[in-house]
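Justification of computing resources. Each target in the renewal requires a structure prediction run like the one illustrated here; the chain below, 454 residues long, is used simply to show the kind of job we budget for.
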Amino acid sequence: MTRDNVPVQPETFYTRSADDVSIAYQVTGEGPFDVVFIPPFVTHVELVWTTSFAAALTALSSFCRLIRFDKRGTGMSDRVGGAPTLETRMDDARAVMDAAGSSRAAFFGSSEGAAMSLLFAATYPERTAALVLRSAYPRTMWAPDYPWGRSEEEYRREMERDLGLFGSRDQALQAVRSRMQLDNDQEARQWVDYLRWSGSPGAVEALALMNKEIDVRRVLPAIRVPTLILHGSMDTILPIDVARYVADRIPGARLVEVPAGHAATGRAAVPINDEIKSFLTEVWESGGWEEAEPDRVLATVLFTDIVGASARAASLGDRAWRELLERHHQLVRRQLIRFRGREVDTAGDGFFASFDGPARAIRCARAIVESIPELGLEVRAGLHTGECELVDGKVAGIAVHTGARVASYAQPGEVLVSSTVKDLVAGSGLAFQDRGAHELKGIPGEWRLYAVAR
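Resulting structure tokens:
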């Protein structure tokens, strides 16, 4: 930002996220609507104004109120062990929005920042007015049904390249030129300083290992907000086919090619900002920022039930069984509160709950399964993440039925999840054991199920 042609550093604020981690953020511009920018890699909310990306931020701030923050572990936010999961980063984004007084915003996700933006838009549609994706990819690694991902060897080389930022200056310059497709040595040296101040070797390695596991492809059909996908016609890192793949799976998404590479700084960012301004202004003028109650939302559903409940009830008698069941219910509800789960229904000896984050749902299920034996009981649990209908504020629909079917395959003392759940908890430290492919009664297709490792 400038005043009388002299650079002015915007004020940096801090807010506490759900787990008491401090997140640094800035707000620039006074436009009629809010935009939350989710950049890739490591960042520094203050030093970015010394780079060639400052002009793009100034341009964005000219038509909106731009909200930016350093993901935990980077920049001016608290340093933490490991890398933040997509779920944790969503918590941080909501905390920043609350602190900035933003009830509803457009999300602008660039490169790896797109995955979190997609997940946020599907999980919190009431807080997302629109979505802009730039150089976005929904999955990192190669798969038979996703041929554009990296191989293990390619990803290892990229991670070693990025860690070169913390080697000699020559290694750092080479890493920056490769990552950002920069030919200008002066600009490259500028970015070396910026990136080295933005993170540490441990943070970069942890982020790389987390990003490797990203796969949000199943989230794409659940996006229900206006979406613009921007792809650089000179992008040599990500082929246009990936942008088309994403656009084809998000209902009503608009794909636009812009004359830019994978990363666009300086004048190269001008056509990108023009497209964003035009799109978001159109959404604004059509009433897209008006708050409305969503009728569909991405949620993780949890089902639990007591193993051998009928036999145990018969052996104890009605009164003793009711007392034991009440203790079971108290214990389950205690864990639901702890992990921010929402009780949807209780039928006999089973619980049905929903969560806005799959990792929390898994940890809640594990806590339930591991604590119930103190009552002399054993339970099993199943989870699935999918787009749910909201009926009187409660989740319903095919995703709920899928979760119930997953639970029916769980063994005593086991937490079983669908592949969708597993794909969305990258970086969580949770481990899984493959339980093979199954046909779920009444649910189309074949489903791969995984047991959460103890």
